[in-house]
Amino acid sequence: MVMRDTLVLTAVAALVGACGYVSAYEEAVYDVEPVYCYQSIGQSVSGVECYKTPKHRDERRLVNYYGPPPSRYDRPEPPPPPTLAAPPAVDFFVRDPEPIPQPAPPRVRSKPEPAEDLKAEPAAGDTSEGQAAPAAKTTSRPRPPPPV
Description:
alpha+beta, 16% helix, elongated
């Protein structure tokens, strides 16, 4: 009987001791404020964001932590699934006309009419009956006087 009582007490002590396991690391950082750091995308300069409590939805992005492991915290309840409902029925509808693609209108370029002062005049001494040859363009700059 004494042997059986000793075995039962030892088993109970082992079970109670196993449930209250605290690692040496947790004992060392017990009094320090915990920090949980997660990898982020473009929101911070270093690419890492740190929080005082673990974010269970981001556990795959956990980089490092200081304090008790995130498994020591209770997971929050998942949000209820959204209730989807159809909008109320209406007895009319509005339909905008569909745009019909059309080609751009062709650009018609006409030849510019020559100015009155640039129209061709018969050259001096021309006795031909045909159309006069176009006169050379003249500039409005006066010619410099010949050197003396």
